[in-house]
Amino acid sequence: CDMVFAMASETEKAHALLQTFSTASVISSLGLGIFCFVADRLLQFSFIQQNDWLRALSDNAVHGILGMWSWAIVIGLRKKSDFTEVTLAGFLASVIDVDHFFLAGSLSLKAALTLPQRPLLHCSTVIPVVALTLKFIMHLFRLKDSWCFLPWMLFISWTSHHVRDGIRHGLWICPFGKTPPLPYWLYVAITASLPHLCSFIMYLTGTRELMSIKHGIRIDV
Fold first, then answer.
1. What is the mean pLDDT of residues 6-16?
2. Mean pLDDT for the chain overall
3. Is-contact 155 146, C-beta < 8 A?
4. From CA 95, how far away is CA 214, in angstroms rounded?
5. Under a CB-based contact definition with an 8 Å cutoff, are residues 53 and 113 in contact?
6. Of the candidates 72, 68, 69, 74, which has an alpha carbon nearest to the alpha carbon of residue 88?
7. Where are the transmembrane segments (predicted)?
8. Cα 207 from Cα 221, distance rounded (Å)
9. Any alpha helices (H) in 105-206, and if so which ranges?
10. 77: phi > 0 → left, psi -120 to 50 → alpha, else beta; which?
């Protein structure tokens, strides 16, 4: 009997893997990869590079769009309320740049861009720590069902931000130091595949089932 249940479980996992690479999600991921390339080329225009505020805001906007797009691949956009989640994902992907100003102790953009070290939220080790802490807090306050997606959303949004920053600065994995700058192809590959990887792990942990109930549908990513 145990063997039958084990085989059934493995079959479900295999089915989830196939769902993770559905046609719609693969096309969306290809679009995400293309967007990475196009956006970075657009940011190289001289009128953007010559204006600090325009460059910073444009760069931050790209971070936000990557976060939104990545989460949209995970949940799909099937009803209006999904756009609220996607918007939140974009906000999370963008807001961590605020730590530049906190470390600078000033609202001066020049001070924020010329820091002697990288601010705390740009340490990649912080991502799993914050995500797991958030998951624990939600469990403590019995919010794990209605807000079960939040740690995953934070993980995807912040990781996409860090990986994109990594093509210039590498990943800061404290306390071990930082990596060399990431190859551009690796940045695009990680960004495009991250929603699929997270979606599959969410299935294995039961999060996707809870989200399906929340969304009133079976999530097919």
1. 49
2. 84
3. no
4. 26
5. no
6. 68
7. 16-39, 60-77, 89-109, 121-141, 184-204
8. 13
9. 109-113, 126-140, 150-169, 184-204
10. beta
Residue 1, pLDDT score: 47
Exposure string over 112-145, b if 16+ CB within 10 A, otherwise e: beeeeebbebbbbebbeeebeebbeebeeeeebe
CA distance 171 to 220: 32
pLDDT in tens, 180-193: 999 999 999 999 99
Q: For the segment 157-170, what is each residue's pLDDT rounded down to a tens digit?
A: 999 999 999 999 99
Say what percent of the chain tops pLDDT 90: 55
User: Which tokens is 158 given?
Assistant: 């912040």
- Distance, C-alpha 62 to centroid of its chain: 12
Ordered DSSP codes for 1-27: -HHHHHHHHHHHHHHHHHHHT-HHHHH
Return the structure tokens found at 104. 């600078």
Please state the φ and ψ torsions of residue 123, each to the nearest 5 degrees.
-90, 120
- 92 and 153 in contact (C-beta within 8 Å)? yes
pTM for the whole thing? 0.85
Q: Sort residue 22 into left (φ over 0), alpha (ψ -120 to 50) or beta.
A: beta
pLDDT of residue 22: 72
